[in-house]
User: Fold this.
Amino acid sequence: MSTDKDQIVIASDHNGSAAKNYIIKMLIDEYDVVDMGPYEGDGKVDYIDYAERLCRYIISPDRKEENVLGILICGTGTGMSIVANRFPGIRAAIVTDRATSALSKEHNNANVLVLGQWRTPLGAMDEIVETWLNTFCTQQRHFRRLRKLENFKV
Assistant:
């Protein structure tokens, strides 16, 4: 569905599904939210599958000119972050508070926010997500580093 709203893609594993649903309700009026699962009744799922689905969606050539952001949630955020950062063009940051939320965008231009439902109370996620969505990378000194990251090869 085409809309004028910015698009936020969100996925979790079974450990993050309560937070995923909470965040969707928080964002649905202001953003075009794409829920990539899991869905009610899916049972226990592998975080790898959902992180991959979200990242492939974001970096798809079909969205090359779009600014699509993603949110991933699992128990701690670690597993989702490890998977997401394997994809070229994805800059995923595990965030636990408002300060790291802002810095992940200001300094690293993170395009995927990773949360841990076991580590961050649902009530704190409002502030973290809102801060992340409303913070931008604008300082020239960070652009040089981001270009290095984009061209980094092992």
Observations:
- The chain has a mean pLDDT of 91.
- The two ends are 39 Å apart (CA to CA).
